[in-house]
Known about the structure:
Strand order of the largest sheet: 2-1-3-4-5-6-7
Low-confidence stretches: 486-496
Distance between the termini: 28 Å
CATH superfamily of the largest domain: tm_1862 like domain
Radius of gyration: 22 Å
Oligomer: single chain
Largest sheet: 7 strands, mixed
Helix content: 25-40%
Structural class: alpha/beta
CATH topology of the largest domain: pyruvate-formate lyase- activating enzyme
Amino acid sequence: MRVLLVYSNRTRIMEPAPPIGLSYVATAAQRAGHEVRFVDLMISRDPPGELRAALRGFAPEVVGISVRNIDNIIAQRISWHINEVGALIAITREHSRAQIVLGGPAISILGAAALKRLDADFAVVGEGEVTFPQLLSALGGSRDYSGISGLCYRANGGVMANAPVRLEEFGGSGMEQWIRWRPYERTGSTWAIHTKRGCPVNCVYCNYPAMEGNRLRSRRPEDVVDEIERVMAAVGPRTFGFTDSTFNVPESHAIGICEEIIRRKLRVRLSAVSLNPLNISRHLFMLMKRAGFCSLVITPDAASETMLHNLRKGFDLARVRQTVELARESGIQCTWFFLLGGPGETRQTVEETVSFVEANLNSKKFLTIFLTGMRLLPGTPLTQQAIAENYISADRDLCAPVFYFSPQVDEQWVLQRVNQAIARCPTVVHGAEQSGSSLERGFNHVLYWLGAAPPFYRFLPTFLRLPPLPALRARHTGVRAGCKLRLEQPTETRKS
Length: 496
């Protein structure tokens, strides 16, 4: 069959995320014998026009649309993406009779609810390398698709949803075949590498179990490093980024990858988008430094014993303190994420976390990002708690952005306390400050042409300390409350 795969993501928070998941699906569909065309709207200057041209020129029989983000998860500057997907579906309906299949992380989270809202024919949840080729085979042979694992489909006036499939083994994505890399690298992106799937950590707000399951399924370190060597030769990215939900869970797997890179004497730059204080040691930091890590994202989420317990992080404040010391010793640029407003948050717990940041993370090697309010997602323990507290109704449509904020503390006070920390520590930012402005784009382009290795946000601690930026931010930084606003349900995008 002729299959058009569309990467719909246009969000560039932190760094543009390349389409690693859709690349896995494209590679699997091609191996199954289908003719695959790939449209990457992230790097497109005219997304609607490029989609129309592909529909007319390729005449696909099936169009798969990958949806990475439901929204930007920032209550104080909300950006909702489902309507954008609805617009792409409308263009597809206008110019093609192809069957439309939705997939990607956002669809795995929403499941059947995505089909209830959007005018698509099918949705794939979980890992699509098996589900999507099976669906193509069924559609091409007019066979029954109702038993395909991970498939949501319309039947009897409603939507049916089959449980997702979890692959025991998987390899490289094959992304080098499907995308143009330099536009990504110019804006600070790192080449995505997936070393494992599943997450056994049970954070109260997290949606990774819906996407990948709780059970870890890891690639052999040799296989991971083989992929790095292959992409180095074919594409030559400046930095490879490990995109696992937690790179160092288990620590032994992360150590194995570092040791294999060191053994082969590869000269590479590396980053990881999630390091968990639960499994971290001086030995791992030493190996990461030797292997070539230039950037780490560390996610303690809180520096309050109460909130670490309430968020089900699985470690205590002593672990957070130890991680700070090890990160400082390593000299690797680190970005720290903290979440404020979770269940049981009070003024005291906010003060504990923010004062910890002021005392311990005010460093030219550290960038600290605060998010205030937690996005409620289907099936998470936090959402179940919010329903039990009558914070939201059990039938609330969570396709639309809904945020939890502790009733025990005032959101505007929390924001003022974060702004106070920004005035004291130039390398502290609030998530709502990330604007994608022309200044930000210019900053990225200068670093690219200077030959810097992404991710470019690792240079922000130096940039934010340059006069007169600290004084200007201390005087003008202000983020308005957003969690307590009862957002109207966005308009239905599915055709009647």
